[in-house]
């Protein structure tokens, strides 16, 4: 039976945000994947953090490791509103050799293990372990309540995927009561779901434990010289075999746009996937609703002026169609279509920009034509540059993906001179 107080108030969310995300290529040269910009003004990690906050969780820890400066700066600026007097805490936990002088975080489980003393001081009853690098909206309160009601040792967040795509995930085989009877990491032949032969149940990297039980498992795992110190490779398979592991279906707790047909979850781990997920937000009714006041995505509230559109002449008219334009942008006599413009972008006269994902503070020179691009933060595009019309030329100058999207950084631009 549900207790009177929201169960989220008894929980702590621990966000694993130390991964590089190397498949995003140069986008993660200077920042970890969770710190990559998304949706105009947000970072990828804001989705997991906002889900926790909106679910009533007021104790949060974030473990960082790879190139964490950008991420830590964002967290310090945008997530500093928790109130200690109301039993709210927000802890940034960089890998800092707290266990030994030569040991950074060896894996996802080790990142939690090395911070046991801090977590114990926060005294939650439940721990919600989250990946910090996916785009989705989810009410963790529902998953927490399932865990409390089921009496399971661990509850694992699961997503239905096509069987032919499931080899990229940790895949669960469940019985009719959603008890996990097998867990296989990236199997060549994924087990099908009961009654759904074309679907497999993939792990979302979301786990719920009782705190004391989790600490027992982490200490046991740390003493095992053969362990890789990872939840997906070690902790979860052990509990599937020796304990009670229950699957939680994402469809039961996802927060969807009104007319969405399916639960929205994206791993924007490649340049193509990242570009596509951003461009999808320019649809009239996108599957991911960023305008939902009931489930807002919190982020750094940077102080910027409004977006501005100037000039109204033939061939020099500042306008954007089917686009998302963030604060501080200036569209000066340029035409923008189906594009995502982050904070502070300036596009100068006579430019034609379409299907572009442009990160903050990019400046695009006059008479530029851009199609199907991702432009990194702070890049200065020289006037007259044409991208997206000659595949061979593009591939020789920029990172061009299999789907024809060009990733452009300042280093690449500098080599054109």
From TrEMBL:
The entry's keywords: ATP-binding, Carbohydrate metabolism, Glycogen biosynthesis, Glycogen metabolism, Nucleotide-binding, Nucleotidyltransferase, Transferase
Nucleotidyl transferase domain span: 13-282
InterPro entries: ADP-Glc_PPase, ADP_Glu_pyroP_CS, GlgC_bac, GlmU/GlgC-like_hexapep, NTP_transferase_dom, Nucleotide-diphossugar_trans, Trimer_LpxA-like_sf
Molecular function via GO: ATP binding; glucose-1-phosphate adenylyltransferase activity
Sites where the protein binds alpha-D-glucose 1-phosphate: 105, 170, 185-186, 203
Domain spans labelled Glucose-1-phosphate adenylyltransferase/Bifunctional protein GlmU-like C-terminal hexapeptide: 305-408
GO BP terms in the entry: glycogen biosynthetic process
Pfam families: Hexapep_GlmU, NTP_transferase
PANTHER family in the cross-refs: GLUCOSE-1-PHOSPHATE ADENYLYLTRANSFERASE, GLUCOSE-1-PHOSPHATE ADENYLYLTRANSFERASE-RELATED
Subunit note: Homotetramer.
Function field: Involved in the biosynthesis of ADP-glucose, a building block required for the elongation reactions to produce glycogen. Catalyzes the reaction between ATP and alpha-D-glucose 1-phosphate (G1P) to produce pyrophosphate and ADP-Glc.
Name the UniProt record assigns to this protein: Glucose-1-phosphate adenylyltransferase
